[in-house]
Structure formats: structure tokens, C-alpha cells
Here is the input.
Amino acid sequence: MPAPELPDRAVVDLLGLVALGELLAFERMAVDARLAPDLRRRAALGEMAAAEIANYRRLADRLAALGVPPDDAMAPYAGPVQAYHDSTEPRDWAEAVTKAYVGDAITDDFVREIATTLAEPDRQLVLDVLHDSSYADFAVAEIRAAVAADPRVAGRLSMWARRLVGEALSQAGRVVAAERGAFTALGAQVDVPGLFRRLTEAHTARMAAAGLNN
Amino acid sequence: MPAPELPDRAVVDLLGLVALGELLAFERMAVDARLAPDLRRRAALGEMAAAEIANYRRLADRLAALGVPPDDAMAPYAGPVQAYHDSTEPRDWAEAVTKAYVGDAITDDFVREIATTLAEPDRQLVLDVLHDSSYADFAVAEIRAAVAADPRVAGRLSMWARRLVGEALSQAGRVVAAERGAFTALGAQVDVPGLFRRLTEAHTARMAAAGLNN
Here is the structure.
């Protein structure tokens, strides 16, 4: 028997959250690109950012098709998502690519999990906004190069990644506490402790792939 | 008789200049998007920015195909183009959209003029990076709305646009003074005073279209 579908309000909430995440991730990656040591890398992070705004457009168009102004669907999340970025401003290029790597991947894992709760066409739309793995490959290569140039960087970036996850979880708690319909509905359908465990395990594996400690 | 083609070095210089302009315009528009009064407008400027980085990619790929690392072709222009942006940081949303409007349009006019000096496939490539006019329509609507809300804004934005043009010309002078092959070759082929006159006339017409004074 297929899982029951989320009510429309919950779908709007989830699309709004993902859309806002894409919009602000775009901006922050574009800003962080200025930390790049050369123009090639600067452009590479800029292109990662541009992929986010293209995804934003698809989600915003779907919200509009559902009769919801995208701004209305996104507004409830602006505070926590902005706070996450404000509290995690990278100080250098290695921190910027680590943030893009960690943030993109956790977002993808979360999106993949919530996709299972959606009916079509929203399920496919949400799966389509997953990131191209070439960006993760680029970020891992940059992190490994930074550690190779100075092994002490590994400890600093490991601590930075833990802070990113901690801040993300803290702001996620604020989103859930705001009692949006989506999360009540989601909680009724998915194994939330299991979801957190899977996200954490995948994050740990990614840290290892980049040569960092969780 | 067709105009003689620019030597390869000059083509590389021109592609490098346009590529760098796109890359830095992308970043600045993405940064300036944070000045938007709502998420819809914030996303609109972000999408204008994303169009620039897509153009950057096409130009960088062409440079690579010509055997030139894009960074090498862009490096000579990094100082003046960065200086232009550093000296013209918008203070609010109306200044940000005015800058995007003025900057995009003058870039397009310049690109259209230099395209006539290029052989294929570079001629078509350069013409393909011209901006979608929907962005200009968006910017004009925003400028007109800002002036409608407060008529005194017209004077301030008119002055701001003059400053943008003045800074751009000043930095363009630095580029030419740096004696890149492209500009010597270009000067031998195009009527430079005529080029400046045409750029200025088109700018004046655009200011009027947005309800501003030149």
C-alpha cells in the first residue's frame, strides 16, 4: 500500500522551505566565491551557486502553479535559514568549499527523504533539484588540496564542519518548533529518529571521503 | 570587402575581458540581491546574475578551446573591473537595479560593436552573450516604481547613473592604457570616437526610458 500523501498545505510548506534554502544558498555561495584564490575556482563556486537559483525557479514556478505566491510559502523560513548563514560565514576558501559541500549534501539527503512523502509531480520535481555530483567532487578535491598543503587544516575544517551541522540542526529545531503543517504531517509519516540517524551517517561518510574527522 | 579579422591575440584579449566582466557582474548582482525588499525581487536579481555566469562558462570554454587558460586571458582586467565594482557599491535596491540596468546595457552595446570585428565562431559566441531584454524590462519597472513612490529618487538615481558611467569610462581608460593587443587592433578597425558617441546616445535613451535624466 503506498504511503498516504501529504496534504496540500504540507506540500506547499516543504516546497517553500526547499525553495528558500536554494535562494539563500545561491547568494551565500556567490558571495563566498570572492574568497577563491584564483578566477577559475571563483567561477567554479559561482557555477555551483547558479545551479541553486535554477532550482529555486523550478520550485517557485510550481508554488505559483499551486496558487501560492512563492514569497508567502518561503517567508516562515527566512529567519532560521538566514540565521544559519549569518552564523556560519566562512573565513577563507577552504571553509567556503567545506560549507558548500556539507550544506549541499545534507540538503540533498533531506530532500531525497521527503520526496518519498510527496505525490507526483512534486516528488519528481523535488528529486530533480538534487545537486550534480561533480560539485561534490570539486569540493572534495579542494578540501584535500588544502589539507595536503597544510595538514593542520584538517583539524580546523573538521571542527568547522561540526559547527555547520550543529548550527543547521539548531535552526532546523526552530523551523519544527514554529509548528508548520509540513513537519507535523512529515513526522506522522517518516521515522524521524531514523531520518536523523541516516543523515548523520551519510555526513560522517562524506567527512571521511574528504579526509576530515566527524 | 570584409573587414580584416583581428589577430588571435586580440580575440583572446576581447574574450578574456568579456568573460571577466561576466564573472564579476555575476558576483556583484548576487551580492546586491540582498538589498531587495522581498524574496521575489531578490530572486529576480539572482536570476539576472545566474545568466551572467552561464555566459562566463561559454566564453571560458572557448578560450580553453583556443588553448588559453581562461585565468590568463582574464587576469589583465581584474584590477580595473574590480575597481569599477568596488567604487560603485549600491546603497539600496533602487541603486542596485539601476547599476544592473546601466551596466548590462552598456556591456551589451560594447559587445555588439566588437562582434563586428570578430570572425566566426567568436562573432556569434559574443553576440550570444547579450542579455535577455526581460531583465531590462524588470529593472525599468523597478526604477519607475521607486520614482513613483518618491519623486526625489529620480534625481538621486540620475546622479548615480552618471557616476556609474564615469567610473566605467575611467576604468576603461586604464584597460586601454595597459596596451593590450586587443585594443590597439580594435582601434585600427573601428571608429573609436563614433563608438563612444553611439554608446553614449544609447545610454541617454535608456535613462529616458527609465524616467531618469542623463
User: Anything to note?
Assistant: The radius of gyration of chain A is 17 Å. The mean pLDDT of chain A is 86. The domain at 8-209 of chain A is CATH 1.20.1260.10 (Ferritin).
